[in-house]
Amino acid sequence: MKIGLRILLGYFLIVGLAAWFLLNVFVAEVKPGVRATLEDTLVDTAELLAGVVAGDLKNGVPALANVEHYARRSIEVKIGGVLKRKLDFRIYITDARGIVVYDSANLALGQDYSRWNDVYLTLQGKYGARSTRSVEGDDRSTVMYVAAPVRDGERIIGALTVAKPIASVQAFVDRSQRKILQRGTLLLVLSLLIGLAVAWWLARALRQLMHYVSEVEAGRKAVPPSLGNNEIGTLARALHAMRTRLEGKEYAEQLMHTLAHELKSPIAAIQGSAELLSEDMPRAEFRHFLDNILSQNARQKQLIDKLLALVRVEQQQGLEAAEPVALDALLRQVAADAASQLRARALNVRLELPDTPLSVRGDALLLRQALGNLLDNAIGFAPAGSQIVLALAAEMAQAVVSVGDSGPGIPAYALDKVFDRFYSLPRPGGSKSTGLGLPFVREVAALHGGTVSVANAGEGGCRAVLRLPLPLVR
């Protein structure tokens, strides 16, 4: 399971459990809270009315004439968004024996209520209350009864009970629970969206970082992702700094060993020629050894110059300032740069350019040097008087530049080595190149997000192909 999904599931599990717990607590507390408030109101009402009827009950006339008309009144009151259309208090009074002597609803007059908790406990001087269902099994039919003692001084002479159906306040309970659930659900959805956003951002940052690490591990050029000034961005910069230091140290060691090895031959040749020049010899031999010193010195200079150019592109992880580069114009320029070499070997270049100009984003100077190296190789191996084909075409969102010659081609044993640093094949006439041209081209191609390949052509000779991504058309 991907880390982004794990983070999201973990976050949603925590938020979901917390939301479930809070919603259950709120919903579970609403109903008891409303009932407790109702009971408190009934206690006050019962105590108030018990005081009012005490004198009448003492005299044997338990009358609440005004209350008898109470339930018949029609009202229309909106309380907290709930419409109330009827009055639903019920009041009954029992004597000291628990016999109902007054009932505002005329339901239990003369009945013995001494066993009901509200009457039984109140007549004993305790707090008397009960909740009884009018319909068996229907919790919504529950009626709450709260009694208060009717006193003659300190003596309890009866009990007054105020009753109110729970259904009268159930609408408030339902409304509160509905609002809590709606807002809780909204909060949960918002939390999920926030979790998705955070998980997406974190997973995206980690994917970019992992892609960078994978590219580094594969030895490819990679620019560290820009992840801001957060902890992941700091980690990316630290990884890049560590990579730069480690690669720089390893690269310098390899470079010094390779350079020392490659310079041994020209240095030995120069030293041998110089020692021979200290002796008397014919003018022609003297001139031969002097030319050898000059050519070996030129080879050293060319080797160092090309190596420095290669070092620059190998250490460069990305293009600093990419700009549009017209490839057809660049190919004409590269052919013009090699004009003297072409004349010296009686070669000509045939340009094959598309009708529609092709442009890529990149570094014009680096591309010019890379194409120059490919053309230089073709010139070095092409038979005198032959033709080199420099072609440009568009294939699958890529600009394809090919350089083909009709030379001897690449031996089978060398096909997988031509891009190795300092590896070169002898050219016609016995001369060899520095072996740094194709590695330079490969690095320039990588910097531009492209590839380069060199293979034998089916009709003979060799064909080098440089592929560069074309800009997306918007």
From TrEMBL:
Domain HAMP: 200-251
SUPFAM superfamilies from the UniProt entry: ATPase domain of HSP90 chaperone/DNA topoisomerase II/histidine kinase, Homodimeric domain of signal transducing histidine kinase, Sensory domain-like
EC number: 2.7.13.3
Main location: membrane
Residue stretches spanning the membrane: 6-27, 185-203
Domain of life of the source: Bacteria
Localisation: Cell membrane
GO MF, one annotated term: phosphorelay sensor kinase activity
A GO CC term attached to the entry: plasma membrane
Domain Histidine kinase: 258-472
Catalytic activity: ATP + protein L-histidine = ADP + protein N-phospho-L-histidine
Membrane association type: Multi-pass membrane protein
Keywords: Cell membrane, Kinase, Membrane, Phosphoprotein, Transferase, Transmembrane, Transmembrane helix, Two-component regulatory system
PANTHER family according to UniProt: HISTIDINE KINASE, SENSOR HISTIDINE KINASE YKOH
Name of the protein this chain belongs to: histidine kinase
Protein source organism: Duganella alba
